[in-house]
Amino acid sequence: MKLFHYTLEDEDFKQYEGEVNAVPEGYIEYEATMGGGMLFYKIEDKKVTDIISQSLTEEASRRRVDDFISALNVNLF
Questions:
Q1: Cα 59 to chain center, whole Å?
Q2: pLDDT tens profile 6-20
Q3: CB neighbourhood size of 63 (10 A)
Q4: CA 22 – CA 67 distance, rounded (Å)
Q5: pLDDT at site 8
Q6: How many CB atoms lie within 10 A of CB 24?
Q7: HSE value, Cβ hemisphere, 13 Å, CA-based, for 62
């Protein structure tokens, strides 16, 4: 599994930042339910600003991040 880093702006996808080797301190762990892997997010000023997603491919990771953002935007989590 690889770790893919994304940034958000106003809780919407902003940019894919590339792969990282480890999850830095300050990220909150969120267990993804579909397809295994984990998702980690960072909050600043009460907003999610960064997401690191664990997945086999960046495409699968992007889908997981999109699902997370959708749930966030409709207050499901």
A1: 13
A2: 999 887 889 999 999
A3: 15
A4: 22
A5: 92
A6: 11
A7: 9
Give the DSSP per-residue string, 1-62.
Answer: -EEEEEEEETTEEEEEEEEESSPPTTPEEEE--SSS-EEEEEEETTEEEEEEEEESSHHHHH
* Beta carbons of 23 and 3 less than 8 angstroms apart: yes
Residues 47-71 have pLDDT tens digits of 899 999 999 999 999 999 998 888 8
The token pair at 28 is: 């909150």
The two tokens of residue 18 are 């590339």
* Cα distance between residue 59 and residue 74, in whole Å: 23
pLDDT at 75: 60
pTM score of the predicted model: 0.85
10 Å Cβ neighbour count for 15? 10
